[in-house]
Amino acid sequence: MTTLKSLMVPHRIVMMLLFAALVLWCALSLRWDWIPKYAPLALEGLWTTIWILALTTVLGFLLAVPLGLAQAIGPWYLSIPARTFCTIIRGTPLLLQIWLLYYGLGSLFPQFPWIRSSELWPYLRQAWPYAVLALTLSYAGYEGEVMRGAFSGVAKGQLEAAKSFGMRRFTMFRRIWLPQAVRNVLPTLGGETILQLKATPLVATITVIDIYAVSSRVRSDTFIVYEPLLLLALVYMVIAGLITLAFKRFENQVAR
After folding, report:
1. Predicted confidence (pLDDT) per residue in 111-148, tens digit
2. Where is the signal peptide (predicted)?
């Protein structure tokens, strides 16, 4: 009921009517006859976008936790490499990182016979492992800095109280430090995950067929420009909305 009342505000009603009019105009005035032909490829590209986003976000966060911890309390021989890694990742374009991995490592591996004859070669010769690695490192670099601030922001008194009760360091980290740090940065993590979604189209530059690559193929095959882009924007908006709702629900559960 509260959500319905919040929507029944004059300016929001006007915005919803304008959006409905725009959708109706797009449905009646633009060309959509190409959709049945490219629907299977679009579903495959959508699945590629989703699993790359999910995998790189999870792996990047798992890498960001030790990066943030090393910068927050680690000795110099751990904090300096962690800080250097985050600085390099945050200071260079993601497209450059993807190209360096794909055209660098990707062209270096074939020169070693023992790699070409290994069981990893069927995967290393493809483009998606380099895309996953680049996006994972990018997410870890940004979130490593976020987690550094999160770990530093946890009240020291709670950690001292846990020590006084004889709690082991790993138990204290698992039960007190990490949960509170994650709770404090959940809104930031949600925003960074949406930014990660917006970065996934860059994998199309190394021949990974994601949803953006499918829209580009439609444009090149049919010379239809606006319709694929509008549909692509709608797909990204829906995914971003689902990510926002998921993090909102998780925040509410954590708050309870």
Report:
1. 888 888 888 888 888 999 999 999 999 999 999 999 99
2. none
Specify if 12 maps to a domain: no
CA 119 to chain centre: 29
d(CA 231, CA 76): 49
Please report where in the chains the tokens 């986003």 appear, as a residue: 53
Task: Specify the DSSP element, H or E, that contains 19.
Answer: helix 10-29
Bigger pLDDT: 61 vs 250: 61
Angle value at C-alpha 102, between 100 and 106, nearest 5 degrees = 115
> 66: which 2 tokens?
């030790």
Q: Please state the domain count of the chain.
A: 1
Of 40-54, 59-73, 137-151, 157-171, minimum mean pLDDT range:
157-171
- Asked if residue 6 is part of any domain, the answer here is no
Q: Which residues contact 64 (CB under 8 A, 6 or more apart)?
A: 139, 140, 142, 143, 144, 146, 147
The one-character DSSP state at 37 is H
